[in-house]
Amino acid sequence: MDDFSLSRLPEPRVYSNEYEAPEFDEIRHGFLLDDQHFLLTTGTFSELAPKGRICPLPDSPVWFAGFINHRGNTVPVYDLPYLVHQERTDLRAQYWILLLGQQSHTAGFLLSEFPVAIIDPKRLNENLALSAAPKVLQPFLTAQYSAQGATWYEFDHQELLKKLKQSFYQPATLFTED
Predict the structure, then answer these.
(1) From CA 49, how far away is CA 166, in angstroms rounded?
(2) What is the CATH number of the domain that holds 125?
(3) Residue 11 lies inside a defined structural domain of this protein
(4) Once rounded to an integer, what is the mean pLDDT over residues 113-125?
(5) Are 158 and 166 in contact (CB under 8 A)?
(6) Structural domain for 79, as ranges
(7) Higher pLDDT, 109 or 22
(8) Which residues touch 30 (CB under 8 Å, ≥6 apart)?
(9) Number of domains making up the chain
(10) What is the DSSP string of 107-166?
(11) 156: pLDDT confidence band, cut at 50, 70 and 90?
């Protein structure tokens, strides 16, 4: 970086003691999808991959975007917005690839909005109110939380991936009752 770009960075906040620092018990990560808020399960390793070339796989289901090369590893990428509203993500527009899990279990999900950090989410009652959540994702929502003025659904991406892998060669059976 040159001096000009460094001068544009904000000065870091320095706290004189631990009592001045903001207090919080938990930081979780989440994302928005069609005006719904989704929270990653506790302990989920996540990172954003740079927007790059996604290599499609011929004759694959439309919800499978393809593969990316992430630090020399091949990572599958799924079009999460497509699962919700049956419209492919425009890869010419702004998007992010949210990587979940560590190698060799990493999978990427396309997102049209930047993920967010959630501070101290409060778990809501045990009865999940799923009526507002996208129907296709409801089986993979495990809890509800309140944070930052919104209700967040805890999203179990591992269970979704199991279902997607089972239906990869049988796309017509995706999300049918067993």
Answers:
(1) 25
(2) 2.40.50.180
(3) no
(4) 89
(5) no
(6) 31-150+161-173
(7) 109
(8) 37, 38, 39, 40, 115, 116, 117, 118, 152
(9) 1
(10) EEEEESS--EEEES-EE--SS---TTS-GGGGGGEEEEEEETTEEEEEE-HHHHHHHHHH
(11) very high
